[in-house]
Design goal:
heterotrimer; A mainly alpha (479); B mainly alpha (106); C mainly alpha (497); A: two-stranded antiparallel sheet; C: 497 residues; two-stranded antiparallel ribbon; 2 strands
Chain lengths: 479, 106, 497
C-alpha cells in the first residue's frame, strides 16, 4: 500500500510522463492528455481522502530528510487547489481537443508540462523547489503564449519571457540570501527561525518584487493583456486562471508563513494598495476595450488585485484566507469559462470585435449562458463562488475597520458589472439577420465545456461547506 | 585586504549589477538575454560562496547550495535555449530585434 | 413532521425547475411550454394554499442551509412572508396566462418564460427569506432574472433601458450588501424576528445603527422606487406588458417595499426605529415620493409611463404606513402591499391590451376605447377608481387605515399628503376614464381593431379577475378571508410583546 504522500507525487509524474510521450507521438497528443486527466483522478481522490481524515500529508523524496532532501506536502488548502487545477484541466482538455482539431500539436506536451509544474508548485515545501517549479510553469506558459506563431503573439511572448525570467532570478536571489542568512530553504524550518535582520528584509523584498512582476500586479501588469489576448482561447484560459495564480500563492506563503515574523503592517498596506489600484485600473481598462479577449484579459488584472488587496486581513482572520482561496478558485473557474466562451465566439464569427457581435451572440445560447453564469461569479453576485469569497473578505475587513478594503471590494464589483453586462447585453440585441454574416456553429462540447465550468463557479458558492472545511484542514496558513 | 570570500561576493554583486543594467537599458533582445544570463551567473556565484562561509574554511563545503547551483544552471540552460529560439522566431516574423511599445495587438 | 420541512423549498423550486426546463424547450414547442408554465403556476398555488392554512393555525415552517460561517440560508414562513407569497403566486398564474396570450407571435418565448419563472422563484425566495443574508441573495437574484425580461424586445431602446435598470439596481444591491455586512459585523447574523432584533444594541451603537438604516433604505429604495432612486422605472416601460405588470405589481417594486417593512419591523423593531429617530425622515421621504410621483404622472401622455409614475407614488404608501408608529398605520401600509398589487396589475394588463389590440400607447389616443374593449376598460376603470381611493374598492380601505393611523400616531400632516395624492390620482385617472367611455374613437383605431386574436380571452380574463378581486378586497374587507384581516393579524404580531 503506497504512502498517501506518493499520491501527490503521482499528480506531478503523470502529466510529466504524458508530456514526454506526447513528444514522441505528436499526433496523439490530445488523446494522451485526456487519458492523463482521467488517470490523475485516482491519486487525487486518494489524496483528498487522506487529507480529509488526517489533515496534512507529506513525503520526503527518496527518504532524505530536509534540509538535504526535498519534502513535499499537501494540506487542505493545497488539496483544494489541486482539485481546482484538475477540474479546469479537464474542461480545457475537452475544449482544446475540439478547438485545435489535430493542429497545434505542441499544445499538448506544453499543457502537460504546465500542469505538472502547477501541481509541483502547490505541493512544494521549500523555497528552492518553488523556484524550479515556477520556472517550469513559466517556460511552459511562455511557449504556450507563442503558440500561434503570429507576430503579436511572439512579441507578447518575448516580453513575457524577459519579465518572467528576470522575476524568477530576483526570486532566486532572495532564496540565496535567505539561505546565506538562515541556513535553510525549508519553509517549515524558516518560519520558526527567521528573525528581523537586514538580510531577511532584503531577501523578502527581492522575492516580492520578482513575484509581483510575474503575477502581473499593478504596476507590473503591462505584459499581461497582450499575452493573454493573443494566445489561443484554451491557452488564455490556462494563463489567466492558473498560471498567474502560482506567483501569488508563493508570495502569500512567503508573507503569511515563512517571513510572517518580519513583515510589517506598512508592507501589507503597500501591497494592499497596489491590489486596490489593480482592481480599479484593470476594471476601468476592461470597460473601454473594443475586443472581447482583451476585455477579459484586463478583467484578470482587476480580479487578481482582489487577492492582494485582501492579504492584510489574513493576519487576524482565518476566514479571510478561506475567502481569498474561494475567490481565487471561483475566478479560475469563471475566467476559464469566459475565455472558452470567447473562443466559441471567435470560432463562430471569425473575430471578436464587440460592436459586431450583436448578430452572433443571440445564436449561441449555451455560450451566452456560460458568460452570464461566469459573469455572475466575476461580479460577485450571490449565489456564486465569487460572492462567497467577497462576503468573507468584506466581513473580515469590516471587523478590522479596514473600510477601504471593504469599499474597494464593493466598487470593484460594480465596475465588473459594467464590463460583464457589456458582453451579456449582446445576447439580447434582438438582431439576428444572418445575411452575409459568417457564422460557424462551434462544436457542442466546446460550448458545454464553457458552460459546465461556469456552472461550477456558481456551484462553489452554494455547495461551499465541503470546500471551506477542506481549506481549513491541516492549516499551515490558517491560523 | 580583501579576503577571497569577499572577493567572490564583490564579483557576484558586480555580475548582478551588470546583468540588471543590461536587462533594463538595452533595447536589443540579445543583450537582454545576455543580461539575464549574467544576472543568473552572479546569483550562482553568490550561492557558491555561501557554500563555504568565511571562518569555516576547515569544514567541508555545504552541499545544498552546490545542488541549488547545479539545478539552477540546468534551468538557465533550458530557459536560454527557449528564449533564443523565441528571439529567432520573433526576428523572422517581424524583422526586428527590439520590442516596440505600440502595436501589441493586431 | 418531515413533510413540513420540504414545503418551503418545494414552493421555491416549483417555479425554478420549470424555468430551467423551459429554457431547454425549443421555440416551436408551444404545447409543452404552455403546459409546463401553467403546471408550475398551479402547483405553486396549491402549495401556497397549504402553507396559508398552516400559518393561520400557528404552524411553524423553517428550512435552512449553512453555506459558510455567517452565511446561513434560512426560509421561514411567518404571517408577513405568507402574505407576500400568496400575492406572488396568484398573480403569477394570472400573468402567465396573460403572457401566453400576449406573446403569441413573439420570438424568444422559451427564453422569456424561463427567466419569468426564475424571476418568480426569486420573489418567492425573497418573501420566504428568514434572515438578512437570504434576503440579499434573492434580492440580487431578482435583479439578475429581471434584466433579460426588461431587454426582451432587443434593440437600442430596450438595451438602454436595461443598462439604466442595472445601474440603479446593482448600485442599490451593493449599498444593501454593505449595509448588511456592517450590521452583521455589529450584531451577528440577523434573523427576522417579530418585534425586532436590535433592541439590545440600541443604546450603545446609536449613530452606527442610524447610518446602517440609511444604507439599507438606500439599497432597498432603488427597487421600491423611492424618489430620487426611481429613475429606472419609467424607462423600464419599454418591456412587454406582462413584464411591466409583474414587475410593478409583484416582483421588483414590491420586493423593495417588502424589504423596507421587514427592516423596520423585524430587524430594527418599531420601538427601536422610533427611538433612533428614523421614522420621521422615512415618512418625509415617502411623502415626497407620493406627491412627486403623482405630479409627474399628470404630465405623461404615454399610458405606461403614467402608470409607472403612479406606481412610484403608490408604493410609497406602504413605506409611509411603515414609518408611522402605531398598529393602524401599519395595517394600512401592509394591506396596501396587496391592494396596490392587484389594482396596478389590472391597469397594466389593460394597458397591454390597448397596445396589442388597438395599437394604442398614449392617453391621447384612448378616445372611445370603452366601446371597443368593454371588459378591458371596465377592469381598467375599477383599478383606476381603486387607486383614487373610491369606496368600496380596495384602495379606499388602505387609505382609510393610513389616515386613521396618521391621526392616532400624532402625524396628522399625512392626511394632507394622502388627500393631495387622491386629488392628483383623480386628476390623472379620471380624464382617461372620461375619454374611454364618453368620447368617440377615431377611424384609425376602428381599423386596427381587426387585430383580434383567437386567444383573446387569455388577455381579458386576467384583468377581469383582478378587478373583481379589487372589488372583493374592498367591499368584503371586514370578512374573515380578506387581505385586510391578514394584515391585521400581521400588525398584531408585530406590536404585541
Amino acid at each position: 500500500m503506497p504512502e498517501p504522500g506518493t499520491d501527490a507525487l503521482w499528480l506531478v509524474l503523470i502529466p510529466l510522463i504524458t508530456a514526454l510521450v506526447s513528444f514522441l507521438l505528436p499526433t496523439r497528443g490530445g488523446t494522451l492528455a485526456a487519458c492523463a486527466v482521467v488517470v490523475a483522478a485516482w491519486p487525487l481522490a486518494r489524496l483528498l481522502h487522506a487529507v480529509w481524515h488526517t489533515g496534512t500529508v507529506s513525503q520526503h523524496l527518496g527518504g532524505w530528510q530536509p534540509p538535504l532532501g526535498i519534502q513535499v506536502s499537501a494540506n487542505g488548502s493545497d488539496t483544494f487547489l489541486l482539485m481546482i487545477v484538475w477540474l479546469i484541466g479537464l474542461g480545457v482538455t475537452i475544449y482544446a481537443f475540439h478547438y485545435f482539431r489535430k493542429k497545434s500539436e505542441l499544445f499538448w506536451p506544453l499543457w502537460m508540462f504546465l500542469w505538472a509544474g502547477l501541481n509541483a508548485l502547490i505541493i512544494s515545501d521549500d523555497l528552492f523547489n518553488l523556484y524550479v517549479t515556477m520556472e517550469l510553469v513559466g517556460l511552459a506558459a511562455v511557449a504556450l503564449t507563442a503558440l500561434t506563431g503570429r507576430a503579436e503573439a511572439l512579441r507578447a511572448a518575448m516580453r513575457y519571457t524577459i519579465i518572467s525570467l528576470t522575476g524568477s532570478l530576483l526570486y532566486l536571489m532572495g532564496v540565496a540570501m535567505t539561505y546565506a542568512a538562515y541556513g535553510s530553504v525549508d519553509m517549515e524550518t524558516l518560519s520558526t527561525t527567521i528573525k528581523p535582520h537586514p538580510a531577511g528584509y532584503t531577501a523578502l523584498g527581492l522575492m516580492t518584487v520578482g513575484l509581483i512582476a510575474k503575477a502581473a500586479l499593478f504596476p507590473c501588469h503591462v505584459w499581461l493583456p497582450p499575452a493573454h489576448a493573443n494566445a489561443p482561447a484554451p491557452v488564455s484560459a490556462l494563463l489567466s486562471a492558473l498560471v498567474i495564480k502560482g506567483p501569488f500563492l508563493i508570495l502569500a506563503q512567503l508573507w503569511l508563513q515563512v517571513y510572517s515574523k518580519i513583515v510589517t503592517p506598512e508592507a501589507f498596506a503597500v501591497i494592499s494598495f497596489l491590489g486596490g489600484a489593480a482592481v480599479l485600473w484593470g476594471a476601468t481598462q476592461a470597460i473601454v476595450q473594443q475586443r472581447l479577449k482583451r476585455l477579459i484579459a484586463y478583467s484578470t488584472v482587476a480580479q487578481l488585485g482582489y487577492l492582494f488587496l485582501a492579504l492584510p486581513l489574513t493576519a487576524s482572520h482565518p476566514d479571510a484566507w478561506s475567502g481569498i482561496l474561494i475567490l481565487l478558485a471561483a475566478h479560475a473557474l469563471a475566467k476559464t469559462a469566459l475565455f472558452l466562451a470567447a473562443g466559441n465566439v471567435l470560432h463562430a464569427a471569425g473575430h471578436d470585435t464587440l460592436a459586431e457581435l450583436k448578430t452572433i451572440m443571440p445564436r449561441l445560447p449555451v455560450t451566452a449562458f456560460a458568460v452570464a453564469l461566469a459573469g455572475v461569479s466575476i461580479i460577485g453576485l450571490p449565489p456564486s463562488g465569487g460572492f462567497l469569497g467577497k462576503w468573507l473578505l468584506i466581513v473580515s475587513a469590516l471587523d478590522r475597520n479596514a473600510l477601504g478594503i471593504a469599499l474597494l471590494l464593493v466598487i470593484g464589483s460594480l465596475l465588473a458589472a459594467i464590463y460583464i453586462f457589456r458582453i451579456i447585453a449582446l445576447a439580447f440585441s434582438g438582431e439576428e439577420s444572418t445575411k452575409g454574416v459568417r457564422f460557424h456553429q462551434p462544436p457542442r462540447s466546446m460550448e458545454w465545456a464553457a458552460f459546465v465550468l461556469a456552472f461550477f463557479a456558481v456551484l462553489l458558492g452554494l455547495a461551499s461547506n465541503a470546500p471551506l472545511h477542506l481549506i481549513s484542514m491541516g492549516g499551515r496558513m490558517a491560523p | 585586504m580583501i579576503s577571497s570570500e569577499q572577493l567572490y561576493l564583490i564579483a557576484a554583486a558586480a555580475l548582478v549589477t551588470i546583468g540588471f543594467y543590461a536587462i533594463g537599458r538595452s533595447p536589443n533582445l540579445m543583450r537582454k538575454l545576455l543580461g539575464i544570463n549574467v544576472l543568473g551567473n552572479g546569483i550562482f556565484l553568490f550561492l557558491i560562496s555561501v557554500a563555504r562561509p568565511p571562518g569555516k574554511s576547515d569544514q567541508s563545503p555545504d552541499p545544498v547550495p552546490q545542488a541549488m547551483v547545479l539545478t539552477g544552471i540546468v534551468v538557465a540552460v533550458c530557459a536560454t535555449a527557449f528564449a533564443l529560439t523565441l528571439v529567432d522566431r520573433y526576428r523572422a516574423a517581424t524583422g526586428r530585434l527590439t520590442l516596440t511599445e505600440t502595436d501589441d495587438y493586431a | 413532521m418531515n413533510d413540513l420541512q420540504i414545503l418551503l423549498p418545494l414552493i421555491l423550486f416549483s417555479s425554478f425547475f420549470t424555468g430551467v426546463i423551459i429554457f431547454f424547450l425549443g421555440e416551436g414547442n408551444h404545447r409543452s411550454r404552455t403546459v409546463l408554465n401553467l403546471l408550475g403556476a398551479v402547483l405553486k398555488i396549491l402549495l401556497v394554499l397549504q402553507l396559508l392554512d398552516g400559518v393561520y393555525h400557528q404552524q411553524v415552517y423553517q428550512s435552512q442551509l449553512v453555506l459558510a460561517p455567517g452565511i446561513e440560508i434560512v426560509l421561514t414562513a411567518d404571517a408577513l412572508s405568507v402574505f407576500f407569497v400568496t400575492l406572488s403566486a396568484f398573480l403569477w398564474l394570472l400573468t402567465t396566462v396573460y403572457a401566453i396570450g400576449y406573446l403569441e407571435q413573439s420570438p424568444h418565448r422559451s427564453r422569456f418564460f424561463g427567466f419569468f419563472s426564475i424571476c418568480v422563484s426569486a420573489t418567492t425566495g425573497l418573501a420566504l427569506a428568514g434572515n438578512l443574508i437570504t434576503f440579499l441573495l434573492f434580492y440580487e437574484l431578482l435583479t439578475l432574472s429581471t434584466y433579460p425580461l426588461v431587454v426582451h424586445k432587443g434593440g437600442a431602446r430596450a438595451l438602454r433601458a436595461g443598462r439604466i435598470y442595472l445601474r440603479y439596481t446593482l448600485a442599490g444591491g451593493a449599498v444593501l450588501l454593505f449595509g448588511i455586512a456592517w450590521l452583521q459585523n455589529l450584531a451577528g447574523p440577523i434573523s427576522f424576528t417579530e418585534g425586532g432584533a436590535l433592541s439590545p444594541l440600541a443604546e450603545n451603537h446609536r449613530w452606527e445603527l442610524q447610518m446602517i438604516f440609511v444604507l439599507l433604505i438606500l439599497g432597498l429604495g432603488v427597487k421600491a422606487a423611492i424618489v430620487p432612486l426611481h429613475g429606472w422605472l419609467p424607462n423600464a416601460m419599454v418591456a412587454p406588458a406582462p413584464v411591466s405588470s409583474l414587475l410593478h405589481a409583484v416582483a421588483v417594486v414590491k420586493a423593495g417595499a417588502f424589504g423596507v417593512v421587514r427592516m423596520v419591523y423585524e430587524v430594527y423593531g418599531i420601538d427601536v426605529a422610533r427611538d433612533l429617530n428614523l421614522l420621521h425622515p422615512l415618512a418625509i421621504v415617502a411623502s415626497i415620493t407620493i406627491v412627486y410621483g403623482s405630479i409627474k404622472a399628470l404630465f405623461q401622455d404615454e399610458l405606461k409611463k403614467r402608470l409607472a409614475y403612479s406606481t412610484v407614488s403608490q408604493v410609497s404608501y406602504i413605506v409611509l404606513g411603515t414609518a408611522i408608529f402605531g398598529p393602524v398605520a401599519t395595517i394600512g401600509g401592509i394591506v396596501h402591499l396587496f391592494h396596490q398589487g392587484i389594482m396596478k396589475i389590472t391597469l397594466f394588463f389593460a394597458a397591454g391590451n390597448y397596445a396589442e389590440g388597438l395599437g394604442i400607447h398614449r392617453v391621447s389616443q384612448m378616445d372611445g376605447v370603452g366601446r371597443k374593449m368593454p371588459w378591458t376598460t371596465l377592469s381598467f376603470s375599477i383599478g383606476a377608481l381603486g387607486m383614487i381611493g373610491l369606496p368600496p374598492l380596495a384602495g379606499y380601505v388602505s387609505k382609510w387605515y393610513l389616515q386613521k393611523g396618521g391621526i392616532e400616531g400624532d402625524e396628522a400632516w399625512i392626511s394632507l399628503v394622502l388627500s393631495m395624492s387622491s386629488l392628483l390620482n383623480a386628476a390623472y385617472f379620471l380624464p382617461i376614464l372620461y375619454r374611454a367611455w364618453f368620447k368617440t374613437g377615431t377611424e384609425e383605431t376602428e381599423r386596427s381593431r381587426k387585430r383580434r386574436r383567437p386567444a383573446w380571452w387569455m388577455l381579458v380574463l386576467p384583468p377581469v379577475t383582478t378587478a373583481l378581486f379589487v372589488v372583493y378586497a374592498g367591499a368584503f374587507a371586514e370578512t374573515p378571508y380578506s387581505p385586510l384581516q391578514w394584515a391585521k393579524m400581521i400588525a398584531d404580531r408585530e406590536y404585541t410583546p
